[in-house]
Specification:
Elements (H helix, E strand, L loop, with lengths): L4 E5 L3 H13 L3 E5 L2 H10 L4 E5 L1 E2 L2 E2 H10 L6 E5 L4 H9 L4 E4 L4 H27 L11 H15 L4 E4 L6 H11 L7 E5 L8 H6 L16 H4 L4 E5 L6 H13 L1 E3 L6 E3 L3 E6 L3 H7 L4 H7 L2 E4 L10 H16 L5 E2 L1 H9 L5 H15 L4 E2 L1 H11 L14 H19 L4 H8 L3 H10 L13
Helix pairs in contact: 6-7, 13-15, 14-16, 15-16, 17-18
Bound molecules: adenosine-5'-triphosphate (ATP) and magnesium ion.
Length: about 450
């Protein structure tokens, strides 16, 4: 751990001096403030790891300072001290989140113990948060560019409402991430969010996927099955790639959104459902309406709260933060803890136009970490990785002297690898997207070395 920064807030010169000396000897960096206003100034100007606050100060009260500090973005762990501490004040301090309450005169051993415990606790919490973030458990919307700040604001507002949301944006801009964020921040977060990818489900199965079916409703419907609407009851239904929904399904969906009740395929009863719909598309739905491939009345129903995701090239300021975020994750996943961007590598990233947006950046960084020979990634590494990733370029597939069979296998490996990573490694989705039998996809990926032969074939 780097040297901990501690702020002492006490007006008594003798105490200031003793504490400063004792703590500095222990290797801590110590700042001193003799009153509330100076303490506030110090706390605003830097991030302390710990503050020791006296209760009675010449220009105010340590308890009030504690209260204010807890709400501030620069908050840090606090230990209170007092020469004439009443039980009441001690209780109040603990309620406000102080870690401990020390009586003066201070016992040095106890003081040092309390401090080192507090710092250790804080460090453990930071590490856990950092690890989880790096492992991707926190799939939050990163980026501090003006469009992203505005977007988070919109997400927050949308999550408080229950009207339909239509998320637009190019591929890989974070539409699904936004849909999940809206659900998670909404009062519906305890109920499930169900997702249906309208492009991935065969046309004649969409209805039963959405509304469920009764046993015997059609060939293959051996058992009664709940649809996404039913499973999302009380929660959110995410209709991904809604622009691909066939016309007659659009009509049925519109009716369900108006009536708020569904009927299973092959069923005779309707049932009420309480579902909030969030839809996403990378198509221009207004244009689709004009061309007659999307129902304008459904568009109006879905587009109550429109959210448009900006492409990454329109907010290049975010590239560095996103790149560092994906790098952290890739480091852990690939066991390359020391790999780092050089300045020129980062500059090269910031110049790229990213037609595949954030997903392209993420895949690019994974490739860089896997392929990078040195721990310091160079601009050349970035250029090379960009070249590798720039399929559909078919150039470069032919290599003189390499047998046709191998060349084809390489191409297959690239296609399947990209499609798998696009679908988060999910075999079912990948098979659907490519129009392959699942069993065939399993065999293929194994034969091409994309999966280990012994790996358990359980999906998702
Ligand atoms: N602002 C962001 N902060 C952090 N990660 C992001 C951000 N935007 C996108 N991502 C990540 O980029 C990847 C692509 O995002 P997502 O799947 O949500 O995009 P999409 O718009 O749904 O793409 P597609 O149109 O291809 O389905 C995901 O791994 C997601 O976590
Ligand atoms: Mg998506």
């Amino acid at each position: 751990m780097t040297t901990a920064q501690i702020l002492i807030v006490d007006d008594e010169a003798a105490i200031q001096a003793t504490l400063k000396k004792t703590l500095s000897l222990e290797g801590y960096q110590v700042d001193v403030a003799g009153g509330v206003s100076l303490a506030k100034k110090r706390l605003e100007s830097r991030q302390y790891d710990l503050a020791l606050l006296d209760v009675s100060l010449p220009d105010g009260n340590g308890i009030e300072l504690l209260e204010e500090l807890r709400k501030s973005p620069n908050s840090c762990p606090v230990i209170m001290m007092s020469g004439h501490g009443s039980i009441d004040t001690a209780v109040r301090a603990t309620q406000l989140g102080a870690l401990d309450f020390l009586e003066k005169p201070l016992n040095t051993d106890r003081l040092l113990l309390v401090i080192s415990n507090a710092l250790r606790l804080q460090q453990a919490e930071d590490e856990t948060r950092e690890l989880r973030r790096a492992a991707g458990y926190f799939d939050e919307l990163l980026g501090d560019s003006p469009p992203m700040v505005a977007l988070r604001e919109q997400v927050l507002r949308a999550s408080g409402a229950s009207a339909s949301v239509l998320i637009g944006g190019e591929r890989g801009t974070g539409k699904e991430l936004v849909a999940r964020a809206i659900h998670r921040a909404s009062p519906r977060a305890k109920a499930p969010m169900e997702k249906l990818n309208c492009a991935a489900v065969p046309k004649d199965l969409i209805e039963s996927e959405l509304f469920g079916h009764e046993a015997g409703a059609f060939t293959g419907a051996t058992k009664r099955r709940k649809g996404r609407f039913e499973r999302a009851h009380g929660g959110t239904l995410f209709l991904d790639e809604v622009g691909e929904m066939p016309m007659e399904m659009q009509t049925k969906l519109l009716r369900v959104l108006q009536e708020k009740e569904i009927e299973r395929v092959g069923g005779h009863e309707t049932q009420k459902v309480d579902v909030r719909v969030v839809a996403a598309t990378n198509r221009d739905l207004l244009a689709a309406c004009q061309q007659g491939s999307f129902r304008p009345d459904l568009y109006d129903r879905l587009n109550v709260l429109p959210i448009a995701l900006p492409p990454l090239r329109a907010r290049r300021e975010d590239i560095a933060e996103l790149a560092e975020h994906f790098l952290k994750r890739a480091r852990i996943e690939n066991g390359r803890p020391n790999i780092e961007f050089s300045g020129e590598a980062m500059a090269a990233l910031q110049r790229h136009s990213f037609p595949g947006n954030v997903r392209e950046l993420q895949n690019l960084i994974e490739r860089l970490v896997i392929l990078g020979i040195n721990d310091a990634l160079s601009a050349d590494d970035v250029q090379q990785a960009l070249g590798l990733g720039s399929s559909p370029a078919l150039q470069g597939l032919y290599r003189p002297g390499v047998p046709f069979r191998i060349l084809v296998e390489d191409a297959e490996r690239t296609i399947l690898g990209e499609c798998l990573s696009h679908h988060g490694g999910k075999m079912t989705d990948t098979a659907r997207a490519l129009g392959l039998e699942r069993s065939h996809l399993y065999k293929k990926t194994r034969a091409l070395g994309l999966r280990e032969p012994a790996k358990n074939d359980s999906d998702n």
